[in-house]
Amino acid sequence: MVNSAPAVGRLALGSDGARAEADGVESTENGARRARPRSLTAQVVEFIEELCLAPGAAPGDRLPSEGELATRFGVSRVVLREAMKSLEARGLVERRQGKAAVIASPNALPVENFVALAVLRDRRALLEFTEIRTALEVHGARLAARRVAGPDRDDAHEHLARARAAVDELLADPADMPTRLRTDLAFHQAVAAASGNASLAQILDALERTLAGSRRESHRRYLATGADPAGSAAEHEELLEAVLSGDPSRAAAAMEEHLHVTMQEIETRPQGTDS
């Protein structure tokens, strides 16, 4: 359990219920600029963030209870819960029903939230994040092939065995939409894991969750063309063989070609089908 605390007592409040320290500015009626005080919630967020990032703090460590934190900072439980909700959304803490909150493991939740909001607001963002996903997956395939040919080959092969299983499952029922979605995701997650770069895999997972609707639309449109549903499995099989060859350049080129088709499909979608 985290016991250390920032060097603060009760929060120093002004007459409007906030500390007289500002994080922004606002305009007055005569056009002058004046400091805007930070909210109590923002202050509590900052202090709990210090707890999570303090030397010696580690993922999985329990934070003090809500009651203890509220007393420590001199705020109501309502304010404390709002702060914890904000920290959870940022991926810094994990809250579990009936249990104390814990420091979260490093994750890409902030990336996921940012991507989701951007895609909702702007159709172009879908293309932009698909381009980012392509760049990451191409590099991931390159790293995976490098590991296949290096001292970490056993670990890489273990992950790529899952990619092989995903291809086999897709071949068994290529026209079933849930199967296509599940196996496509599993394949790409396995290749990313085989790269050995955990941060890359986490960011890709965040992108995949946010772009799940786009992936579904890609598969729907593919099936609507009347093309052989098993063609998707063949494409993934070729990509897997390129990674297993141990040739980073070949693996990167295969992944780039594979995702280029996806990019073209997104670019040609009618308006209103980008969900």
In brief, what are we looking at here?
The chain has 275 residues and is mainly alpha-helical. It has eleven helices and four strands.
Quick one: CATH class of the largest domain? Mainly Alpha
Which overall shape is indicated by the principal axes computed on the Cα atoms? globular
The figure for the number of domains is 2
Helix content: 55-70%
What is the name of the CATH topology of the largest domain?
Answer: Four Helix Bundle (Hemerythrin (Met), subunit A)
Order of H and E elements: EEHHHEEHHHHHHHH
Task: Note down, in words, how this protein is organized.
The chain is mainly α. It has helices at 40-53, 66-73, 77-89, 109-121, 123-148, 153-172, 177-194, 198-210, 212-224, 231-244, 248-267; strands at 22-27, 33-37, 93-96, 99-103. The protein folds into 2 domains: 22-103, Arc Repressor Mutant, subunit A, CATH 1.10.10.10; 110-267, Four Helix Bundle (Hemerythrin (Met), subunit A). 63% of the residues lie in helices and 7% in strands. The strands form 2 sheets. Strands 1-2 form a two-stranded antiparallel ribbon. A two-stranded antiparallel sheet has the order 3-4. Helix 5 (123-148) crosses helix 6 and helix 5 (123-148) crosses helix 7. The longest helix has 26 residues, at 123-148. The protein starts with 21 loop residues before the first strand and ends in an 8-residue tail after the last helix.
Give a topology summary.
Blueprint (H helix, E strand, L loop, with lengths): L21 E6 L5 E5 L2 H14 L12 H8 L3 H13 L3 E4 L2 E5 L5 H13 L1 H26 L4 H20 L4 H18 L3 H13 L1 H13 L6 H14 L3 H20 L8
Antiparallel strand pairs: 1-2, 3-4
Pfam family, one: GntR
Organism: Isoptericola cucumis
Keywords: DNA-binding, Transcription, Transcription regulation
